[in-house]
Structure formats: structure tokens, C-alpha cells
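Summary for the steering committee. The consortium agreed at its last meeting that each partner would contribute one worked example illustrating the joint modelling workflow. Our contribution is presented below. We chose a case with several input lines so that the handling of multiple components could be demonstrated. No manual editing was applied between input and output; the record is shown as generated.
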Amino acid sequence: MSKVLIIGAGGVGSVAVHKCAQIPEIFTEIHLASRTKAKCDAIAESVKTRTGITVPTYQVDADNVPETVELIKKIKPDLLVNLALPYQDLTLMDACLETGVNYMDTANYEPLDEAKFEYKWQWAYQERFKEAGLMALLGSGFDPGVTNVFAAHAMKHHFDEIHELDIIDCNAGDHGQAFATNFNPEINIREITQRGRYWERGEWVETDPLAWSMDYDFPEDIGEKKCYLMYHEELESLALHIKGLKRARFWMTFSEKYLTHLKVLENIGMTSIEPIEYNGQMIQPIKFLTAVLPEPGSLGPLTKGRTCIGNVMKGIKNGKEKKLYVYNICSHEAAYKEVGSQAISYTTGVPAMIGAMMMLTGKWTGKGVFNMEQLDPDPFMEALNKHGLPWKEVEL
Ligand code: NDP
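What follows is the complete predicted structure of the assembly.
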């Protein structure tokens, strides 16, 4: 018997709640809270129709620790799953420490006024979680998340040392909109417009934003796509935890159309996080832009095609060089049919459910703050195959 409290009723929260409801023997009670209760109610209604499971819903401001503590005390969950925004990571970790509840999320903390993707703020909670005898699992989405587990799996079963790692994230889907982001627009644009960064021989090398690209031929008829080098948060923990790693890079595909729109928005200042005065009010242009762009959730019925996300890893096994590609392909249409969301939310919400399952079933335990690659990859890899994100591995 286990009780989970999920915070955040966006695209990812919706998938995670639907997937948890498919496994009532593990998730005996699912509670959902977010800033806007109506969004929680809409998810609860869809879950009820699809699975017959009732999900109690609540309004909460996760930036407010006392308010969140009160909600946690009322529900008394075994685990809090943070699927709100990265800005809420620290307040939710504080609320978990105050109430003695385990914590999990899918994205690392980011200060509102600075687009910085670093684990330092959350790693600083290590001692407090250890002393409280609690576990915090960071980044249980796809990337970060599954990509970290793919690396841990390769390390455990295929390599003595991994020397080169390229994480390649391809969205070969199309939603037919002139410009839209597949997850929260503000977080997405902040991430893409920052300077590129990769790990090489023990140090970080910087590039201009999206300045480097390569063509990659994706499997199963997805074909060749242009991928751009960018910084992604899992590189930081993987560079620390994967033995022998000499180079680690992250690549993402973008269409010409997407990049042209982004460039124009950037050039006219619409992606800026610097507050400006408008009609006597201070606003961040990116927040205004987020409000006018399509909600990622609305792209579900419109998106066709597939995603393909995986790790290309080169290293040594028994003194011989080896190159391995581990990947998952996910269909936007199949995800929509199953849980009413497109594949970007699906590929994040499913690993969020699996991370929660690992913690609630005791397959992953520990005291302190953990990144995904620090835990045994086997039960997680098995669960991916079982719960909608089957993976393949090929020697290149
Ligand atoms: P959405 O914007 O769709 O949803 C975010 C939800 O959080 C909304 O329901 C929002 O409420 C709620 N929220 C925001 N602020 C607060 C607050 N102060 N208190 C309570 N609730 C709040 O985002 P996504 O679902 O696309 O993304 C969710 C998380 O998943 C993000 O952290 C994102 O970075 C991460 N992510 C991780 C990926 C991975 O692979 N690891 C990939 C994609 C996303 P409201 O509806 O009122 O705005």
C-alpha cells in the first residue's frame, strides 16, 4: 500500500497520473495538487473515465512552504513527486524535509532571474536528506532520467569504461503549428537560448547557442536529421559519476522553421528574462510569450510522428573498443490514444511514474540526494519495456 502526492497538473503531470492509475497495486492512492485546481480536476476526470480510479485534487502554491507543508500533513503521502516547474524544486524539498517525506522530480532547480541549469542547489541538500533518513531522486524524466539510466545500464552490462557519450534527442513529430514548444515554453526557450556547453577531458567547453550541428541518421525509417549541440543538465551528473568519461555532449533536433521563429523572437527581445515595465507593471517578456504560445497539452491531438531519444556510447570492454547505441522510439499518436498527451509529455511522465515506483517498492532506496545513474539500472530498464517505453540496443 502506498500513497503518492503529485504536484503539477501540466503535460507531464497528466501522463504521470494516468500511468500511476494503471498500476493500482503499487499506487494505491494518487493525490494531485497544483496552482490551478481546475487543471487537476480535468486530469482526474480523464483518469476516472479511462481507469475508474478516483484521484483527489487540491489547490496549492508550491512556492509557499507552509502552505505545501499543510497539504502534505493532511495527505500524509509516502512520496512527493514534483512535476511543477524547476523553480519549485527547493521549496518542495524544504517541505519534504519538514514533513519527513521522500522527494522526486524531473528537472533541476533553476533560479527565476537566471537561466542556469546546475545541480549545485539541490546537491547542497545532501546532508539534510541523509540526516533525516530521507531519499531525494533527481531528474526522473527522459532526459534527464532515462538517458542517465541508459548510461548506467551500459556501464553495468557493456563497458569497463565509457570514454565518449553523445545523448541525441530527436523529435521527428509535427504538430502543424507555426511555432510551439512541446513542454513548458518558458523552460524550453530558456534552455535552448543559453550558451552551448559540453564536457571534454575534465573541463567544460562553451559554444555560442546552437552554433554546432551534425547530421544523424536515426533508426527505423526516421532517417537523417540535423541535430544541434546544446547544454543539458544530465551532462553534469554523468561527467561526475560515469567512470573514465572523456567527452560528453547533448544534441537535439530542430527544424529550420522552428529556429527561424526562435531567432526572430530572440532578436526582438521576446525571449528575454530581464523584466521590463509595461503599463506600470514589471513583466518578463518570456512570461508574456509563454502566455500567447499554444499550451503544450493542446498539441496532443495535433501531433503526428515519433520521437527517438538515445545514447551513443564509445568505450572499452576487455581491452577492446566498443560502440553502443541504446534508444527508445515513441509514437505521438499512440501516446495520445493511451493517455491523451503527445510523446514529449509521455516520454517524461512514464519515467516519472517508474522512478516513483522504484522508490515506493523499495527497488531503489537510500538516504540523501541521488541522480538516476547512481542506482541499479536493471529494474528501471525492465519497467521501461513493460510500461510503454521499450528500448533497443545495437552495437555500431
Ligand atoms: P507545464 O507548464 O505543462 O506544467 C507545469 C505545472 O506546474 C502546471 O500545472 C502549473 O500550474 C504548475 N505550477 C507552476 N507553478 C506552480 C506553483 N508555484 N505551485 C503549484 N503548481 C505550479 O509543464 P510540463 O508538464 O511540460 O513540465 C513539468 C516539469 O517537467 C518541468 O519541470 C519540466 O522542466 C520537466 N520536464 C522534464 C523533462 C525530462 O525529460 N526530464 C522533459 C519535459 C519536461 P498552472 O497550470 O497553474 O500554470
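The first strand starts at residue 3 and ends at 7. Residues 7-13, 34-36, 39, 60-63, 83-86, 88, 106-107, 139, 141-145, 183-184, 187, 296, 348 surround NDP (CB under 6 Å).
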